[in-house]
Structures are given as structure tokens and as C-alpha cells.
Write a structure and sequence with these properties.
Blueprint lengths: L1 E5 L8 E4 L9 E11 L1 H7 L13 E2 L3 E9 L11 E4 L2 E2 L6 H4 L12 E3 L3 E2 L6 E5 L3 E3 L11 H17 L9 E5 L3 H12 L3 E6 L6 H8 L3 E4 L12 E6 L4 H7 L3 E9 L12 H10 L3 E4 L5 H18 L7 E6 L15 E5 L2
Parallel strand pairs: 8-9, 12-13, 12-15, 13-14, 15-16, 16-17, 18-19
Antiparallel strand pairs: 1-2, 1-4, 3-5, 3-10, 3-19, 5-6, 6-11, 7-8
Helix pairs in contact: 3-4, 3-8
Bound molecules: zinc ion (ZN).
Length: 354
């Protein structure tokens, strides 16, 4: 079968190859891949920045955002049937089966020895067929088939929002205004979730006011800010919740100025580690004097995917085809290389397997 593989830490090793079709073991299903979404993590893995093949394998099959059909059921799988449309979650419990992994929160794993499809020690789904444990599959209603490839990134945004609200139970909190920094797929999906919750949402990015990203923000009732015209540092308004989805240190630090009293800020990027921050004392004092709080969020679990399914239907009902607009590039498998070239106006690139 055909598969998109990489050989980290080799740079630009991404290629389309023939590999053996996998067999579902006990408790697993064989998936027939329909579509794969490509994100920044896939590009960083293809650049050799991270990514780890399974033990004993020279290569790693890429792909952690997918929608697939169940082709075959392994032994002891009861809750699924052949032909079911599904999206698998990405992370699997650690070897030690720590407390959080044991109760279905492998996204909060304590040991760091977890596995991740297409990223860390487990093959991904960018192959004609793939296997997954049945316990980590989300059933997809057929009317969401075209959008389900967005469910994994949506689950990341769901976790960020859910955790923010959960953390803020530290007091009485009635958030009115949120600020999302960055209008990539994650930023836009977070914006939609926050709009469903009735918040006034501002989104800042570097694209022009007439760009597709800006239009999507306005389409869901948000306010778009072009930071080239209006830098974040010049904004005087304060917000109850700030979501940082650019991964850029200088932008993230500037966004601290947006935090109102009792607010919370969620970081979703991977930041350059050695960037000096001369104003760290100011940052800490700002946190203290306004009871502000910062936290990071990575990966997601089944509960976030399930919430994502509900919100996907609701976004479709309220804002019609806005989610389809996030898919800016559709490629056939033979053109997969185009998915790894940077494109300024890209939001989400999807590779079709059939
Ligand atoms: Zn664990």
C-alpha cells in the first residue's frame, strides 16, 4: 500500500513509498484512510525537527489528522462495525499507564512516555490503510464526512477553551470578551467555539482586512485586527480570556497587555526557547496584581473530540459553510509534496486518499 513517510531526524525526508498493509491486532480495527489534514507539526517532522518512528522501524508514517472508514474489525472489538466512519484520537496511554492515562486523559500524561500516531513511536494515518485501538475512535455522523478531517485540530481548540473555563472556576467568572492571537486553523476554530459560547471575540493576525482569514472571522461575528495596521501593544481594551496560537515569543509577550483582571491566557504554540525577556519582572507583577493566570495546553482526549462533533454541527447550523472555507487546498495523494510547501494564505491543506 502507499504511504507518506519520513525518516527523522533527516531533513526533508518526506516521500510516498510502498509499505506492507498492517493487520489489526486484538482490540484494534483496520482503517481505510479517506483524507489527511496537514499542519505545522507535520511540516516540522518533515523538516526533521522532531518525530520518532516506532521501535524497530526506520521510518515513521506521517499523519495525525484524519477521517477514515472501518475496513476490518479485530478480535474483541464490539462497539464498531465495518463501514463506520471514524476519526481516531492521536495520543495513546504511556507504558506505565499512569493515573491520567488510565482514566482516559492521556493528553495529561504524567510520565511523558505516551505514544502519538504520526508523531511519536506510532505510525500515523497517511497511508491507504492504518490500524488504531478501537477504544480511541470517534464515530462520525455521515453529514459531517466532509468536515471531519478538521475534528483533530478542533479538539485541540476545544481542550484550550474547556480547560480555560475549568481553571476559572477558581472564582465567580462571567467572561464577556476573548482575544485570539493568530488566525491559522487553530485560532479560527477557537474563535468559532468562543462565539458559540456567546463571547465577543477579537482575532489578530498579519493578513489584510480583505483576506480569507479576516472574512472568516467576520462571518462568525468576530472582529478582525490586522496587526500590521494596529499593533497589539496599541490596543487599550482588556479581555477575560486570551488564546495565543501563533507560537511566536514576541507576539505572546505583547498579548499579555490584553489581560484584564481575573483573566486567563492559554498558550498553544511551541516557542523559541532562548528568546530573552527583559521584562519578566513586569510579566510576573502583572500576573500577581490582577489575579491573572497563564497556562499551556497540548494534545486532546476523546472528550474533546466528542465536544468537537457537537460544536461542528452547531457551527454548521449557525454559520453554514464557514468550516468548508478553512480547507484552502485539496490535493490528491500523487501531489502530496505540495502540502509541504509554505503558502501564506493557507489555512488547512487536505490530502485525499480516494
Ligand atoms: Zn501516562
Amino acid at each position: 500500500m502507499k504511504a507518506i513517510t519520513v525518516e527523522p531526524p533527516k531533513r526533508n525526508s518526506v516521500k510516498l513509498v510502498e509499505i506492507p498493509k498492517p493487520l489489526p491486532a486484538k482490540g484494534q480495527v483496520l482503517l481505510k484512510t479517506l483524507r489527511i489534514g496537514i499542519d505545522g507539526t507535520d511540516r516540522e517532522i518533515s523538516e526533521g525537527i522532531y518525530g520518532t518512528p516506532p521501535n524497530g522501524s526506520r521510518y515513521l508514517v506521517l499523519g495525525h489528522e484524519t477521517v477514515a472508514k472501518i475496513e476490518e474489525i479485530g478480535d474483541q472489538v464490539e462497539s464498531f462495525s465495518e463501514g463506520d466512519l471514524v476519526v481516531p484520537t492521536v495520543r495513546r496511554p504511556c507504558k506505565e499507564n499512569c493515573l491520567n492515562c488510565r482514566i482516559g486523559e492521556s493528553d495529561m500524561c504524567l510520565t511523558g512516555n505516551y505514544f502519538e500516531h504520526g508523531i511519536y513511536k506510532l505510525h500515523g494515518f497517511a497511508s491507504e490503510y492504518a490500524v488504531s485501538d478501537a477504544n480511541f475512535l470517534i464515530k462520525i455522523p455521515t453529514e459531517l464526512e466532509n468536515l471531519a478531517v478538521l475534528l483533530e485540530p478542533l479538539s485541540i481548540a476545544e481542550k484550550a477553551v474547556t480547560q480555560s473555563f475549568k481553571i476559572q472556576e477558581r472564582m465567580v467568572w462571567e467572561p464577556k470578551k476573548a482575544f485570539v492571537v493568530g488566525a491559522g486553523s487553530l485560532g479560527l476554530l477557537a474563535t468559532m467555539i468562543l462565539r458559540l459560547k456567546g463571547l465577543k471575540v477579537y482575532v489578530a493576525a498579519t493578513r489584510e482586512k480583505e483576506s480569507l482569514k479576516a472574512k472568516i472571522v467576520r462571518r462568525v461575528g468576530g472582529t478582525y485586527i490586522n496587526v500590521r495596521e494596529t499593533p497589539i501593544g496599541t490596543l487599550e481594551e482588556k479581555f477575560d480570556l486570551v488564546i495565543e496560537a501563533t507560537g511566536r515569543v514576541e507576539v505572546a509577550l505583547e498579548a499579555l497587555n490584553l489581560l484584564g483582571p481575573n483573566s486567563v491566557m492559554c498558550f498553544l504554540g511551541i516557542y523559541r526557547e532562548k528568546k530573552a525577556c527583559e521584562e519578566f519582572g513586569k510579566v510576573l507583577t502583572t500576573m500577581v496584581l490582577g489575579n491573572r493566570l497563564m497556562f499551556g495546553s497540548v494534545s486532546s482526549n476523546k472528550s474533546h473530540f466528542e465536544r468537537g462533533i457537537k460544536d461542528m454541527s452547531e457551527i454548521k447550523r449557525r454559520y453554514k459553510d464557514v468550516l468548508n472555507k478553512l480547507i484552502t487546498k485539496k490535493l490528491y495523494l500523487t501531489d502530496f509534496e505540495q502540502a509541504f510547501k509554505s503558502d501564506r494564505e493557507e489555512i488547512k491543506t487536505v490530502i485525499y486518499f480516494k
